[in-house]
Amino acid sequence: MNFTIVLSMLLYCSLILAQDDVNVPETERTNETQSCFPDMCEFLKEFGAMTEKQRVMETRLKNGETRLKDAETRLKDSETRLKDSETRLKDSETRLKDSETRLMDSENQILELKSKEKTVVVFSAAAGGSGHIGPFNTDTTVVYKVVKTNIGNAYSQFTGTFAAPVPGIYYFTFFYHAGGSQRVSLTLIKNNESVVTTYDHTTSHDGADNGGNAVFLQLQQGDQVYVRLGANTHVWGDNFITTFSGFLVSQV
After folding, report:
1. pLDDT of 169-188, one tens digit each?
2. The domain at 122-251 falls in which architecture?
3. What stretch of H or E contains 169?
4. C-alpha triplet 240, 241, 247: angle, nearest 5°
5. pTM score, two decimals?
6. pLDDT digits (tens, 9 = 90+) for 195-207
7. Contacts of 144 (CB under 8 A, 6+ apart)
8. Does the keyword Cell membrane apply (predicted)?
């Protein structure tokens, strides 16, 4: 805009000079032309060069502004892609943590299952001795002194009591042999509570009796199971014919 104004003024001045030249004698006009026009031509050349430089600079400026806008656009696109990548990375990290948690849970479950598989509890014992056990005037725990099997050492041959080493489902059996002339009463006890019983009445025509019972029990660690002989009843203990057995079916 400034160059346009200057150019307009120069043209205006040239017109004024041209008008003045009409009233000037030929000789003077020739002298003036020789002294003034070379300067004007030089100025116009310089002005044209400056105008061209300005045009070039403006073009370069516009190109620079365009490239700057393009760079800003690419930068925004890069920032957007970076944010998207960060979001996907966070999602991947979250999924990875979830997978690690599930993996740890699975490993713990496998270890627990392996631990359960390794836990073996089995016992079997006989009353032993010679002759009969009882009768006693009170209920009495039968101590099965002859241990045949005691994997896990959960049965005590000194007290006749089985103590559950782990929580789980257990299976118990108890059998007896006794004379028919006296009553028989055996009860499986869990923590002082009666569970199942085997019983036989006195008969005059029966020389001997056999009987027993069995049961599945869910036990907690430390629960106690034993067999109680009822008051004024008896069983025979010789030849390992009165037994108490049990084993762990499954941990829970």
Report:
1. 999 999 998 876 788 999 99
2. Sandwich (2.60)
3. strand 168-179
4. 80
5. 0.57
6. 999 988 777 676 6
7. 125, 126, 127, 128, 155, 157, 160, 227, 242, 243, 244
8. no
